[in-house]
Amino acid sequence: MVAEYIIIIIYSLALVLIFMYALAQLNLLINYLQAQNKKDTCQKFDLTNPAETPFITIQLPVYNELYVMERLLNNIVNVEYPKDKLEIQVLDDSTDESVNATKTLITELQKSGINIQHIRRTNRNGFKAGALKEGLEKAKGEFIAIFDADFLPKKDWLLKTVPYFKNQEIGVVQTRWGHINRNYSTLTKIQAFALDAHFTLEQVGRNSKGHFINFNGTAGIWRKACIYDAGNWEGDTLTEDLDLSYRAQLKKWKFKYLEDVETPAELPVIISAARSQQFRWNKGGAENFQKMAKRVIFNKDLAVKSKVHGLLHLLNSTMFLNVLIVGVLSIPMLYIKNNNPMLKNYFYMMSFFVISSIIFFICYWFMYRKIYGGGLKNFFKYISAFFTFFSIAMGFSLHNTIAVIEGHFGKKSEFVRTPKFNIKTLKDSWKNNKYIHKKPSIHVVLEGILVLYFAFGMYSAFVVGNEGGDFGLFPFHLMLFSGFGYVFFKSVFSKA
């Protein structure tokens, strides 16, 4: 009986934490809806006036980007801005043949009059953060725009973002990510679904009420003075963008989020690439919770609500741990429930996961409707998209939980880049990409075991108790079985 009570307590705590996170999402939805009716009264530079037009540095941190460098550079040099007030830094830490190809491209651009430099380091200390920091020392710009290699800003990007810096309190302007290969596969669709929720509901919901948001590592622009005042780039976490964002906002710098300015980018098209990206983001989130939580809690200038949202924001990735706990323990809980009739009322009370799921369903519908439009037809498409996303997200929970645990316990690991493919349509092939990791992780074996485990959970629904089974958790176990099955089989067979 002691073991049963331990399982009940752990299961309950995980459910409560998920429920708290769901309530926070609901609050962000309310904030988001209220923000739609607000007019932007922010002061803006008049960029037609040379006296108000600041010098801008565009930084392109790259590492072994053989397939997308030409696309990136050809796109960046077409960004509209006075040429005498714009420089481009290619911060190239590459170690392969892309170095020479990039050098040749840059030389040709320089001959055409483009102010572009090819900056190389002798080591990769600090990874991306180290490259940005070294480039900053040479940057002439008062403001620093940053784009990863797979991002393709539109021509008027600077014209839409730079003006907001007339407000001297603004340290960062961040734009919304778009997805040039959203409909390539199920994998790209569910990644787009998750990112769209972040870049609409969460970023607007937090920013509109003055809560902390994060620079997303790319497709944003920093005031150089803000970077220095916050302590500059640091490479001690895997998400240097989240780290600097919190240090800057703790220094009272304001962030401006522009939902209506979309910056298209490429989503990972194979699961190994998505796994490496997810691992880095989730581990980095946990590392930043360890680094920033106390600073947020004990900051005397922060409102309580901002502290709560800040802590839950830093704990975003830790929700995967709670989901995994609930999933794994739900099967023994099914047996405990049917073997202990006296606990019946308790199980009715502990329906947090169902309530949480409903809250997420409602919140994400508003995001989906914003992007795809409303109507009954789109709503039915949304139902399919939501449950596909929910299932596969749970299928990633073991992989992301390992990342989270490593982050919380301080295990250091290398910054693993996400391979880029230059893929937009189904006709484009990724199979010859030299950056793909061919060997599946050992974690895949555990995911295969969990597929069988949740198949047993579905079977259990038919045999537990004395009243012909208990199907309350059957849909949950079906989603877990489907999600882990998808992740396992795609990981083994390396399919998009």
**Rg (C-alpha, Å):** 24 Å
Structural class label: alpha/beta
CATH architecture of the largest domain: Alpha-Beta Complex
Task: Report the average pLDDT across residues.
Answer: 93
End-to-end gap? 46 Å
Approximate strand percentage: 5-15%
Q: How many β-strand runs?
A: 7
Spans where pLDDT lies below 50 across 5 or more residues? none
Q: What series of H and E elements makes up the topology?
A: HEHEHEHEHEHEHHEHHHHHHHHH
CATH topology of the largest domain: Spore Coat Polysaccharide Biosynthesis Protein SpsA, Chain A
Largest sheet: number of strands, sense, barrel closure: 7 strands, mixed
Number of domains: 2
Can you tell me the overall shape? globular
The helix content, as a percent range, equals 40-55%
The CATH superfamily label of the largest domain reads Spore Coat Polysaccharide Biosynthesis Protein SpsA, Chain A
The main sheet orders its strands as 3-2-1-4-6-5-7
The number of helical runs is 17
Output the CATH class name of the largest domain.
Alpha Beta
Structure commentary:
It is a single chain. With 496 residues, this protein is of the alpha/beta class. It folds into 2 domains: 208 residues, no CATH class; 224 residues, Alpha-Beta Complex (Spore Coat Polysaccharide Biosynthesis Protein SpsA, Chain A), CATH 3.90.550. Helix content is 55%, strand content 10%. The protein contains 17 helices and 7 strands. A 7-stranded mixed sheet has the order 3-2-1-4-6-5-7, with helices on both faces. Helix 6 crosses helix 13 and helix 8 packs parallel to helix 9. 45% of the residues are buried.
